[in-house]
Amino acid sequence: MIVLILLVVLLLASLLTVFKAPTYHLWLLAIAVSEFPLIFIGITGVLLVTLVWVEKYQFTLTLIGVLALLLFASPIVRAYIAASAVKQDFVNAFGPGSTIINGDNNQPAFSFFKLFKTAKVNLYSYKTITYGSDVEQTLDYYPARFAGKRPCVIVVHGGSWSSGDSKQLPELNSYLAAEGYNVASINYHLAPQYQSPVAVDDVDKVFIYLRKNAGKLNIDTGNFVLLGRSAGAQIALLSAYNRPQNGLKGVVNFYGPADMVWGYSAPASKLVMDSRAVMERYLGGTYKAVPDKYIASSPIEFVNRQTVPTLIIHGDNDVLVSPIHSQKLDKKLQQNGIKHYYLNLPWATHGFDYNLNGPGGQLSTYVVERFIATVCK
């Protein structure tokens, strides 16, 4: 009976690889299921082996276990399928040579053996710097491993505009620093005490500080890239599109809300997150009360033929920020002839990049590194 219960629970959990999570806690489980698949494959495999000693319902239990096993393995299979196309698609978007890193064009976009590595990479040391006059205006600075003037990636954290900080998901920061990029992971004023566009103002101040101190920080001021996740992606996109900075070469959008007006009209399930309340705290009211603020805070409204190159990364199973945001942004960038690439991950949910060695984490890191190298040539 215990084996039956465990296998049924695992089967239900495996469904999160193909269906969207209906509640907040199941969304968290969906990240684990889709980005740490070997753990669940291993547990299911062990239970299947124990069925050798089970006589009752053996066929039914085996069927349940095999189905769960196949679903747990599906992100790996789909990652291989995505990886088979990503290199050529990226070249089509950015031109010949855009997938070459340090003279090597043979690095795979996805490797099964990387799944066995720990989720954490070796974290680089960083120093915390104050870039403004308020206590909220600090950044964690990861210096590039290589000497000399190097490009700088400005990272804007997520957290529904009201939480989170510069310590969020530091693994990619360390990875990029090891690859030769300076990384400035910033804090900004949070809602509801501070509302849009104060956070974008903070990004302006970060640029001013980094340019002023470029000498001692070894920053090439002609090569900046903005990178944001979730709410931070909205801030990064809005800064890049509405307030383009000298030296800004591109922007990376991890599952960010690009159309605040549409997002308010199609909210997430309240069992996962009350997205309308989140937006109201950030923008100071409902869409009916302050429609101009929703429009002014929608990055998609500011796309034009001078917009910087853009990398979009989103999972189809995202239950916090609908992938329709990225689909709409992709279309708008196409209409304006802007160089961009949309990495669509069918199995992935919001926050999939928690594990850089997971199926989604590997693919997103692959395109992020190549995007930065391409736009900062």
UniProtKB/TrEMBL annotation:
Gene3D superfamilies according to UniProt: alpha/beta hydrolase
Superkingdom as given in the UniProt entry: Bacteria
- What sequence ranges are listed for the domain BD-FAE-like? 141-333
Q: What is this protein called?
A: Alpha/beta hydrolase
Instruction: Give me the segments passing through the membrane.
Output: 36-54, 61-81
Q: Which UniProt keywords apply?
A: Hydrolase, Membrane, Transmembrane, Transmembrane helix
The cross-references to InterPro entries, in alphabetical order and at most eight, read: AB_hydrolase_fold, BD-FAE-like_dom, GDXG_lipolytic_enzyme
Which PANTHER family does the annotation name? AB HYDROLASE SUPERFAMILY PROTEIN C4A8.06C
One molecular function GO term is:
hydrolase activity
What organism does the record attribute this protein to?
Mucilaginibacter rigui
